[in-house]
Design goal:
Order of helices and strands: EHEHEEEHHEHEEHHEEHEHEHHHHH
Helix content: 40-55%
Oligomer: single chain
Structural class: alpha/beta
Radius of gyration: 19 Å
Largest sheet: 5 strands, parallel
Shape: globular
Strand order of the largest sheet: 6-3-2-1-12
Number of helices: 14
Length: about 350
């Protein structure tokens, strides 16, 4: 059975402690970070090993493009989604085609190495946020909706479920909730009519959502990921969303208002999250796994919808990706549009060296 926790592991191969943790009853997922990645073959071997020890487990990663990409060595570079937005301003049709290609390309390469899902796309509006920036497609709802829909079409065609984040919107808040408390003082009507619209308008394409660790003080005194108002009243009942709700990382500073990690896990699940993420803190992960034993299991059929269509490994990334009919064309289109092939290595290096706003530990 799939458990309520998604945790991380130490390195590029499982340790005995990792195995002990992922075999615990309420651990239903593993999220990979850059420290877990050497190359494609190593990642696939790692994912296969994880599933050997726990067949009922989701494996996820943040592979958004631009600065936020855990899979780099040997993988095709993806532009930041904001570059799609810039292209949309000049050539909407080409941008929409490229959004589809980005979604397909990303999903194909992530699935090829045995990972079920990338937590994408980002549906936040580009505003004043220190952590969102060019992770967002655009600042206008219409553009975000159009581009994100195409991106998700590409993901789904390749065989990957979609996860929109960070509901109901993180872009209008300057503080980075990874490292600080973030409070949005706007009214509910203003939030619904602006930042929440990309989520509402793409709901039929969304298999999962991840709420923001932002306190919308005019609505609730708790961050959205701990709020029954946001998750149950608004998301489940008003918007009729029936997909998976992943908490954002409960080790983030924006989550600490809910107490210690055991309290955070219980609060997130009781508020309406299906799966709670606890990352970058091994002591906390053990505490969370113990606390989770008292919690009910998530809706199993709902969680199963997030399992990726993982292809048979063919010995290397390129050969494995050839099993995806459109992978080669999508790769060519994105490379030609966003990366000069003569300077592709230099461009990939510059992306790798750019500051990742989510790499806070």
């Amino acid at each position: 059975m799939y458990g309520v926790l998604m945790i991380d592991i130490d390195s590029t191969a499982l340790t005995a402690e990792d195995v002990s943790l992922i075999k615990q009853a309420q651990v239903g997922g593993v999220i990979l970070f850059a420290r877990n990645v050497a190359d494609a073959a190593q990642v696939r071997a790692l994912c296969d090993d994880i599933r050997y020890h726990n067949p009922d487990i989701l494996i996820g990663v943040d592979q958004e493009g631009g600065r936020v990409a855990r899979l780099r060595e040997g993988f095709t570079p993806l532009p930041a989604m904001g570059r799609l937005g810039d292209l949309f301003n000049r050539d909407p049709n080409r941008a929409l085609n490229c959004a589809y290609d980005c979604g397909y390309l990303m999903a194909a390469e992530v699935l090829a190495v045995g990972i079920d899902l990338s937590f994408a796309p980002v549906l936040d509006r580009d505003g004043i946020s220190q952590v969102i920036g060019d992770r967002s497609f655009h600042h206008e709802t219409q553009a975000i909706t159009a581009l994100a829909t195409q991106f998700m079409r590409g993901m789904k065609t390749a065989g990957m479920a979609t996860t929109g984040k960070h509901f109901p919107g993180h872009g209008a808040i300057a503080p980075d909730s990874h490292v600080a408390e973030a409070i949005d003082t706007r009214s509910l009507d203003e939030i619904i009519n602006s930042d929440m619209q990309p989520f509402a308008q793409t709901l039929s394409w969304l298999d999962a959502l991840m709420p923001a660790h932002v306190i919308f003080s005019q609505v609730d005194n708790k961050p959205a990921g701990f709020s029954k108002i946001w998750l149950q009243e608004i998301l489940r009942h008003q918007l009729k969303f029936d997909g998976v709700i992943f908490s954002d990382d409960l080790s983030m500073a924006g989550a600490k208002a809910a107490g210690n990690v055991s309290d955070r896990v219980k609060a997130a699940i009781e508020a309406g999250c299906d799966i709670a993420l606890v990352c970058n803190d091994r002591v906390a992960a053990h505490e969370a796994a113990e606390a989770a034993q008292e919690l009910p299991y998530p809706h199993q059929n709902r969680v199963k919808t997030m399992c990726g269509n993982i292809p048979i490994w063919q010995g290397d990334l390129e050969s494995t990706c050839q099993q995806f009919d459109y992978w080669q064309q999508a790769k060519q289109n994105i490379t030609q549009t966003f990366f000069d092939t003569q300077s592709l290595t230099q461009t990939a290096t510059s992306i790798a060296e750019a500051t990742d706003p989510t790499n806070y530990k």
